[in-house]
Amino acid sequence: MSASIPLRDVTSTRAYVELQQGGAVSWNLHVFNAAVYVQTGTGPAGGRIDWRDEVLRVPGFHTFDGSARRIDAIRVRAAVAPTSSTNTPRITLDAET
Which residue, 39, 40, 47, 74, has fewest beta-carbon neighbours within 10 Å? Predict the structure, then answer.
């Protein structure tokens, strides 16, 4: 079973794009155009998520291993306020169980 967010713009430095998938083995984040902040967290689906510290991720492909450290959810926000389509972060995010 997997969950995913297809290509999407991350348009705010304050609002998060979030994906929850309990029991995920790995998470794949592809960042286009501009840097983003990423937080991983644990908690029940639809319940309170305990978020870890934010990590800066530059454009590229990033994998988070949920088997080494439990990850039930990931959320992403823009690192810099987007002013045009060229500096608006675009992402894809998927979880594999």
Answer: 47
Backbone angles phi, psi at 55, to 5 degrees: -130, 135
Nearest-angstrom CA–CA distance, 50 and 62 = 21
Nearest to 25 by CA among 68, 74, 76: 68
Dist. CA 29–CA 62, nearest whole Å: 5
| The predicted structure's pLDDT at residue 1 | 52
Q: How far apart are CA 40 and CA 54, in angstroms?
A: 8
Q: Is 10 helix (H, G, I), strand (E, B) or coil?
A: coil
Question: Is the Cβ–Cβ distance between 19 and 73 less than 8 Å?
Answer: yes
For the record, the structure tokens of 23 come out as: 């029991």
| β-bridge partners, 39 | 75
User: Structure pTM?
Assistant: 0.86
Asked if residues 7 and 92 have their Cβ atoms less than 8 Å apart, the reply is yes
